[in-house]
Specification:
The protein is of the alpha/beta class. The chain contains ten helices and eight strands. It has a single domain, classed as Aldolase class I (TIM Barrel), CATH 3.20.20. The chain has an eight-stranded parallel beta barrel with strand order 1-2-3-4-5-6-7-8, surrounded by six helices. Helix 9 links the parallel strand 7 and strand 8. It is globular. The structure holds 1,3-dihydroxyacetonephosphate. The site of 1,3-dihydroxyacetonephosphate has 14 residues, from strand 8.
């Protein structure tokens, strides 16, 4: 399967800079071996999708509600993301688990609504520094997978150790390999519909470390934060794949 390189812009991007970044990525892409996805803030999805139309680069959301429509002030449904050109949605990112208190059960409902709307969910899991210090990383990730993935899950899983996000710290190659093998085994055991799902790595992926990480077994691509905000860096990661 082709690797997937996904850019998570998080809460970054006003109209002009988003358009410039999307154009820069489009024009620099060339013949990429990887599948490429950009997840801008919700306010920019339609504009970025228009800029990327016909380029082969997909556009996604960064979260969605569990429902389709209704009295949920400030929320956005999977159907609405789909309506403005998104094909994917990131769910269960650790920043939302922490900032919005999203539980595994809530994330599983959001994943189901994304699947129902025809979006590909990218479900994030990963341990904190404290959990890794205690040697609990596999237990934590197993619990997140069990709780956040509906029984009929199909989509993408992203392993993002919380302590590696935006810190410049990256797990060793051996630690990434071990966790990705563990996630693969868990999917095969408990979510057979997702036995072959791509498992992305995320957390301080940069042009300088992308080739090494992306070559590891069971690493099916990257979920890139900070480096996806600089066209040259994001393109270098895409080329590394
Ligand atoms: P950074 O690449 O900035 O560490 O962010 C990773 C991430 O959270 C992507 O979802």
């Amino acid at each position: 399967m082709r690797p997937l390189i996904a850019g998570n812009w998080k809460m970054n991007g006003l109209t002009e800079e988003s358009a410039a970044l999307a154009r820069g990525i489009r024009h620099g892409l060339g013949d990429a071996a990887a599948e490429v996805l950009i997840c801008p803030p919700a306010t920019q999805i339609a504009a970025v999708a228009a800029i990327l139309a016909g380029s082969g680069i997909a556009v996604g959301g960064q979260h969605c509600h569990t429902g389709k429509f209704g009295p949920h002030t400030g929320e956005i449904s999977a159907l609405m993301l789909r309506d403005v050109g998104a094909t994917h949605v990131i769910l269960g990112h650790s920043e939302r688990r922490a900032d919005q208190g999203e539980s595994n059960a809530l994330i599983a409902c959001k994943v189901s609504s994304a699947l129902e709307a025809g979006l590909v969910p990218i479900v994030c899991v990963g341990e904190t520094a404290e959990e890794r210090d205690l040697g609990q990383q596999q237990q934590v990730v197993a619990h997140q997978l069990e709780g956040s993935l509906p029984q009929d899950f199909v989509g993408v899983v992203a392993y993002e150790p919380v302590w590696a996000i935006g810190t410049g710290k990256v797990p060793t190659a051996a630690d990434i390999t071990a966790m990705h093998a563990f996630i693969r085994a868990e999917l095969k055991r408990a979510r057979p519909t997702a036995a072959d799902a791509r498992i992305l790595y995320g957390g301080s992926m940069k042009p300088g470390n992308a080739a090494e990480i992306l070559a590891l077994p069971e690493v099916g691509g990257g979920l890139v934060g900070g480096a996806s905000l600089v066209a040259e860096d994001f393109l270098a990661i895409i080329r590394a794949a």
